[in-house]
Amino acid sequence: MNVILLIARNTFREIIRDRILYGLIVFALGLVGVSLVLGQLTFSEQARISANFGFTGAHISAVFLAIFVGSTLVSKEIDKKTILTILVRPLTRVQFLIGKSLGLAAVITVVITGLAGVMLLIFNGLGLEVTYLFLVGLYGIFLESFLLLGLSLFFSSFSRPIMVVCFTGGVFLIGHWLGDLKFFASKSESEFFMGFANIINIIFPNLEKFNWRSLFLYNDDIFITEILSASIYSLAWFSFLVTLTALVLRRKDFG
Amino acid sequence: MSIIQVQNLVKSYKKGFIPKKQTVLKGVSFTLQPSTITGFLGGNGAGKTTTMKCILGLAFPDSGQINYFNGQSLTSETKSRIGFLPERPYFYDYLTGEEFLKFYGDISGKFKKRLDLKQRIDFLLKKVDLYDSKNKTLREYSKGMLQKIGIAQALVHRPEFIVLDEPMAGLDPDGRYYLSELINETAREGTAIFFSSHLLYDTEKLCENLVILKDGVVIFEGKTEQLISKMNSQLKITYQKAGAKNIEMVKAGAELTIKLSALLKEKFEILSVEPELISLEQAFISMAMKGAKS
What is the ipTM of this complex? Predict the structure, then answer.
């Protein structure tokens, strides 16, 4: 088997055997359960509330995994010195980095898929018609968490996990506010503010590009080109960030 | 034919809030031959681990050169011929002993057939006396068991050269005996072993060659017996005056003659002059204190 896939499989196994993952899954399932209770308090909104809570649970789980687990993905290997016995084997540091990322991306996919399965059961019970927009919403969550994973990896190449969480969490918030910032900048008469907003728009990823969670709820359609361009956008950011991380790690001394 | 040739290795680190350069290796050079067991000795902070990390590509030297397997550079191909056990090994504790060895065996790329790897893993697990614990996760292993499984991962892909950083640490006498046997057996099969240790008794028994490092400089490279016999060339003079007994070490020959003349001139009573038979430990301490280049 390819060394990247071996590292990915091992990382997948590591996270799957970690208790934190199960805490997260219980939390997400709890959120779905709460939606069922809340739905009883409303009139004819049960399905909408369940869908909303289900997507939120999947979104929080995926983002949490990308930021929190991503922040220690490489640093834990350095701190525990497990990286020493790996890097002396016939693989490059870039292969190691990509393998670790793919392992976590696989876990995120499994968690999203599992939660999607639970949501489908609930929708079925509620008699809600499931369209392809349901998958589009989940795919958007995956693309966003993939990009956030790239950010976590990059920040973890030069800072401690707590700082990685702060930095990535900060970018996560900014990334969701970029649309608002652009809107306010367009209404502003200050050239400085407009310039500032433009720079922020360039240097931070726009995470609202992946927010397709409401499409399913309102049965809004989406162009395939939009999905494709968002996929390329996420992959491009991830590749850029992994390249930067690889450059930092390339000449790093371990031990 | 050399397995490893280290030439004039210099390595410094920058430490502190205002980075201050600290040179750890100051021109380290030595050569390792195939099928030999070489002990790598030196006090704490002498630069042993840094040298090993430079050899393994985990740290990058400021200058100098390392040639592998008769003049090759460190590539994936050369890496697949090297094994390594770090000091105080930390491993993937969520894996079972068997999964752990399988992972390292797979990643080495040496096993084309699944059965070959399975047989190799079973052989090594029996060899390090962990076969009955192969299905336990590593977090259930004791320190000694971790050291043993670490040795097994270093050997799993049948490397031609193994670097062991403090392999005896944490092992009980039984464990040290079995590890010594394993090291000897591996060397007999043609593998060159390079290991650091603070346990000089074991080193003396195991190693035919030694490289001794002090303050980032090689102060001895050669045969173990050569070092001991060199140190054994000293003579112990016991003398007294007014009931106060003194002991002094001198080299045979002119130094002995001069010392004895001086003592007799000062009316000291010479009680004995005898050759000093010393162990590697004493030889090492004596050499480390003097810092004499062989």
Answer: 0.81
